[in-house]
């Protein structure tokens, strides 16, 4: 059975099973949302192009470009929500300028999110990558670190320097610091752009750099929970990983699989978005871009069908039916009047009345 | 194996020379032949030539782990890649140029001919200047001479072409040079080898 499932289908099933295993409940949402939800939260979206249409009652609706906003919109304050989903979203994808239907799986943990919840979400992220298979890595960072170092700095400087840090562009970081008059931050920020490694190694490095704060304490807390795990060396702290600080204020993470050029998994703590939407709660979650798994490690097949049965007008049709019925338990069978472009393993020719 | 996208042309040859000096030579690359991919198994590196404006696409999509392209391409297409090093070669400037007699009094929409539509939009957007972009693919300098546009946004090296055609530089947008870029996913799985390359190339960068 598993041979006929596509990569995407296998992944969706395995992820569903994984998330259910940890008590995450399925969240099924409608295909459309009011466009207004996306217009007021444009910057949170990966792309601000949204497919819209007018509903039968004149309301402007959108084909969902995102799932998190919908789940957050319906969150009930005071309640703990742990939900997973598998939905199609509609976005302008990557470098092409057309809309695409993108299949996305993921989960959200909304409410009073504590250290255990964060640990569990990170472990589920790593396990999601593990389920998909191949060589993988989860990059993690904590935006509290940069937020603390850059607090009080000029907003334009922050925007510039964060962009350079995200690109590991050390020269760019240096230039930005000098241009805006923050020479004292050059060394720290350059080191940060280039720092990555196990949680333990990065914590040691940050200690050497004299960086302290609640973000560090939280990473230490996570480290104590993850350190015994067999997944420890699949989790890497990379301080160049950033996120939009208007929405993400804590942990951010991105999952990669060797051979897939884009991050397959993306997530973080988006409590600031919740506050912006008027919800007094914290939230953490991630999305897995199932569409990126298409063609991953797929072996090109040499044949289209196992058996090709050729027949013509002279063929006894009852013999044809019998022949096909005889072959179907042994493999895939295709009956037609000429070979055409079909690639087959074995050909059975019943034309001209042959038996 | 590290796959490297090199830009075809003069810049690419200079870049390859840097790689060779850094210990990543691939002699077959310099021989006249029709091969497209050149591999040095021992050093674990593979080079291929691509159109300069395509380097960022190969790197962004992981067909190349690293590559070298001008900052102008990075500014125009903003690929989601790491920018490891400024090689400080292939230096030129992104500028606004126009006929000597032309003076922008801001009274009407400025017609800008350029290959770099996004750079032009961003630059004039930051000045809140209303513009009409005429996207051309080459020989941009001829546009203001023929009255197709008021000015051009283009990269200028010596300025000789501009001078000869009675054009002059109106504004300098930003300096341009060749950058070493890398695919974010590849870096996760090949960090040691890539960091070694960055380090060795870094030693050869001439800072002025």
**What is the average of the pLDDT values of chain A?**
92
Largest binding interface between chains:
A-B, 21 and 20 residues
* Low-pLDDT residue intervals, each spanning 5 or more residues of chain A: none
Number of strands of chain B: 11
Mean pLDDT of chain B: 93
Please give the alpha-carbon distance between the first and last residues of chain A.
32 Å
Beta content of chain A comes to: 15-25%
List the total number of helices of chain A.
Answer: 12
Our estimate of the beta-strand percent of chain B is 25-35%
Note the overall shape of chain B. Answer: elongated
Poorly predicted runs of chain B: none
The tally of helices of chain B reads 8
Total DSSP E strands of chain A: 15
The radius of gyration over CA of chain A amounts to 26 Å
Q: Give me the side-by-side strand order of the main sheet of chain B.
A: 2-3-1-4-11-5
Strand order of the largest sheet of chain A: 1-5-6-12-11-10-7-9-8
Order of helices and strands of chain A: HEEHEEHEEHEHHHHEHHEEEHEEHEE
List the topology elements.
The complex is a heterodimer of chains A (355) and B (208).
Chain A lengths: L6 H15 L3 E2 L5 E3 H5 L12 E3 L5 E4 L4 H6 L7 E12 L6 E13 L3 H18 L3 E7 H7 L5 H12 L3 H11 L5 H8 L2 E2 L1 H10 L5 H13 L8 E4 L12 E7 L7 E5 L1 H6 L5 E8 L15 E6 L6 H11 L5 E4 L7 E6 L6
Parallel strand pairs in A: 1-5, 7-9, 13-14, 13-15
Antiparallel strand pairs in A: 2-4, 3-4, 5-6, 6-12, 7-10, 8-9, 10-11, 11-12
Helix pairs in contact in A: 1-4, 4-10, 6-7, 7-8, 9-10
Chain B lengths: L1 E6 L2 H12 L15 E4 L4 E6 L4 H6 L5 E5 H7 L4 E5 L5 E8 L10 E5 L2 H10 L4 E5 L6 H4 L5 E6 L3 H5 L2 E10 L1 E5 L1 H6 L1 H14 L4
Parallel strand pairs in B: 1-3, 1-4, 7-8, 7-9
Antiparallel strand pairs in B: 2-3, 4-11, 5-11, 6-9, 6-10
List the main descriptive attributes of the protein structure presented here.
heterodimer, A: 355 residues, alpha/beta, nine-stranded mixed beta sheet, three-stranded antiparallel beta sheet, 12 helices, B: 208 residues, six-stranded mixed beta sheet, 8 helices
